[in-house]
Amino acid sequence: MGLSDEIYKAAMDCGYDNCGIIIPEDVNGAAAFLRKRMEDVPSSREFYNGILSNYAPVKERFPWAKAIIILTAEHGKYRYPPELRRRYAKAFFLSPEEGHTDAYDHEKFENWLQTHDIRWKQGNIPLRYAAMKAGLGIIRKNNFFYTNQGSFVGLTGYIIDQECTLHQSVSPRPCSDACTLCQKACRSRSLSAPYTMNPMRCISFWTTFGKGNVPPYLEESMFEKWICGCDNCQDACPYNRRHDWDKGEPFSNLEEIARNLVPEKLVEQSDDFLKREVIAKSDQHLDPEDTGVLRINAERAIRNAKSNAKSNAE
Q: Which of 105, 179, 213, 258 has the fewest CB atoms within 10 Å, measured from its CB?
């Protein structure tokens, strides 16, 4: 068994669903991919300049790098409580928290690398682009990475110092040229064209990194009931809509706490509860001190729900 096969087997043993391995040069084209997005939406430059360093050639940043491992973990195999839908981004809440191994075990995989004398570094690479180059799926018009099961998939990448490759052949059906469903579903017009995005208009950004603020060029109603993240463009996609979130395995304690995460109850929860049951599940999109941000978002969700109910009644 070669090293690539051993890595694949170790990844499967750690709970991942697929594994691809590419050479560092395979992701060099990602920088041009990002610059094109910046050219298409000039107002996004300030945001993307902050992450452009992760798109620099891997070999320049890590001279010892000889391969990149990309691992996928399908979130769609789990149930997602209805109380959380259209309020909390599914990818956040279906990703394992530190110390939990419901879906896949980072620590176990990293220990495997270490015991096999493989030097590694996690992150610092454009994961979606790398996953595409590894043959694990495609990037669709809404900019999300898709496997055959859809876009709700976790990606993990490791730069390693051993030579090996492993290309998969996951080939989802491409987007129709005529389809604009994800753009129409984006209330804030963050998606103004295929394969592009203005992160400064993204509801997911403003409910997390944006600290709950509503910038002057957006309207409060655009946030709908979202408290942490936004799945509108993914939920509207035909390649996600066939998925039934009522089916699958239970994940962590989501079903136990879901009723306490609706906005009306969230505003009354303690800081400790919010840190443990929401912020810890936000995939580092919220900081421990952001309990006030969650309350701001929840209060806005309540206002929007009342306003929508009133409009429907009229």
A: 213
